Amino acid sequence: MTPTSTSPVQTPQPLSICVYCGSRHGTRPEYTEAARSLGAAIGQRGWQLVYGGGKVGLMGEMADAVLAAGGRVIGVIPESLEKLEVGHTGLTELHVVPTMHVRKQMMAERADAFIALPGGIGTLEELYEVWTWRQLKYHDNPIGLLDTAGYWQPLLRLMDHTVAEGFLSPAMRALVLVGDEPIDLLDRVAAAAEAARGGDNYSKV
User: Fold this and answer.
1) How many domains does the chain divide into?
2) In which domain, by residue range, is 121 found?
3) In this predicted model, what pLDDT tens digit does every residue of 31-62 receive, in sequence order?
4) Residue 88 lies in a domain
């Protein structure tokens, strides 16, 4: 009799992507459209969104789009911001945590990749933190910047200046993937995440 294999069947791993974005809509309708488009693409692929847990602004638009497309959404929000950012009660999981430090750590631990959409100082702070962590080799996850309507161009010029003045290596500046089309950037980030995991295949529904 031929022995029956008991090895587990390997199934594609769903990508878990952490997105940083504004708790406001901003002045341009393109920002809202981009958040919805990115969210829908994440959900349609059967992937998981990790984000700040809010129901308002670009945060809420993106989360709702992921859920409507059938994806999982994990929200992490500190107690002090639950009312201000209006914690989204319709998520797959909503974690209310004591501090911003715990929030950011939990989001990072659950992510395979990071993308920043237009946002304010909170979005900038989160982007720079995971970028710094990448430089310090705390993680090797890819980082993407969705440059909707040229929103991030002033920041990119500043980073080029930082390189020119000798405070940032060209390799670290080039590490952040930049694009203005949500689906194209998402695919590039997913490919980089796959490469970082040694060729693991992420499901793409």
Assistant:
1) 1
2) 16-196
3) 999 999 999 999 999 999 999 999 999 999 99
4) yes
Contacts of 119 (CB under 8 A, 6+ apart): 20, 21, 22, 23, 58
Which of 186, 162, 187 is closest to 174 using CA atoms? 162
Q: Per this entry, what is the length of the chain?
A: 205
State the residue for tokens 């946002």: 119
CA distance 118 to 116: 7
Whole-prediction pTM? 0.90
Helices and strands, number each (H, E), in the chain: 7, 7
Give phi and psi for 65, each to the nearest 5: -65, -40
In-domain check, residue 11: no
How many CA atoms are closer than 13 Å to the CA of 200, on its beta-carbon side? 14
- Closest listed residue to residue 126, CA positions, set 115, 142, 112, 139: 115
